[in-house]
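Need a sequence for this fold. Nothing fancy.
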């Protein structure tokens, strides 16, 4: 796996590189860039590139307003934003601009173990605990974003079986189906069935919506201590 870390802070790039090497060892090749132009050049020159971990603020890239245009200049490689911003509007705008994931800089390096396989398999990763925060005071409007929530969204968590609740808890942590299966001693195919059932019962369209709803409602529904 070839990963390009694009951030203008050398110490941060070093930390991410260490985390990736700790997770993947010799199976990962790490490239680094400190400007938008350098990121673009390396991306086009590296035909084996699998993923770009991109900061929103660096020379040549001035935040979320320029992200869509910048991503359009890159090869068709998944881009995951790595940012300190928890703002709902920023997260949504990043996904709408073409990013396949959004990771908080405050996250533990272990989160990459869950994020990278999901994104590389074509799925979307968003930190549900960040999206679920209410301090920004901004709600999503209905539309085509993978993060959209219906205005009358009121999932019935009590309809979930105990096993589905366990699966949903791991889903909110960003676990892939394979990791959930390993953690709970299940077959991956069985996990897929549970995930499909969870989404149907909660009335959501994707894993991200399910995770967002769970983070908002677990404590309110009394499921935080469920086995």
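Here you go.
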């Amino acid at each position: 796996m070839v990963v390009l870390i694009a951030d203008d802070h050398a110490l941060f790039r070093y930390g991410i590189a260490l985390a990736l090497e700790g997770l993947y060892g010799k199976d990962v090749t790490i490239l680094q860039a400190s400007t938008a132009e350098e990121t673009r050049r390396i991306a086009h020159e590296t035909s084996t590139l699998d993923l770009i971990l991109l900061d929103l603020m660096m020379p040549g890239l001035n935040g979320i307003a320029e992200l869509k245009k910048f991503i359009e200049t890159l090869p068709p490689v998944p881009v995951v934003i790595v940012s300190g911003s928890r703002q709902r509007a920023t997260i949504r705008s990043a996904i709408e601009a073409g990013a396949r994931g959004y990771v908080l800089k405050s996250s533990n390096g272990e989160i990459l173990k869950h994020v990278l396989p999901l994104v590389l398999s074509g799925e979307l990763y968003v930190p549900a605990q960040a999206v679920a925060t209410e301090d920004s005071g901004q709600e999503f409007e209905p539309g085509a974003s993978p993060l959209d929530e219906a205005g009358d969204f009121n999932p019935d968590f009590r309809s979930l079986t105990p096993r589905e609740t366990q699966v949903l808890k791991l889903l909110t942590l960003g676990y892939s189906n394979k990791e959930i299966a390993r953690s709970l001693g299940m077959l991956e195919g069985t996990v897929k069935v549970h995930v499909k059932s969870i989404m149907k019962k909660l009335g959501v369209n994707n894993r991200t919506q399910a995770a967002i709803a769970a983070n908002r409602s677990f404590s309110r529904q009394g499921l935080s201590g469920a086995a």
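For context: The longest strand covers residues 2-6.
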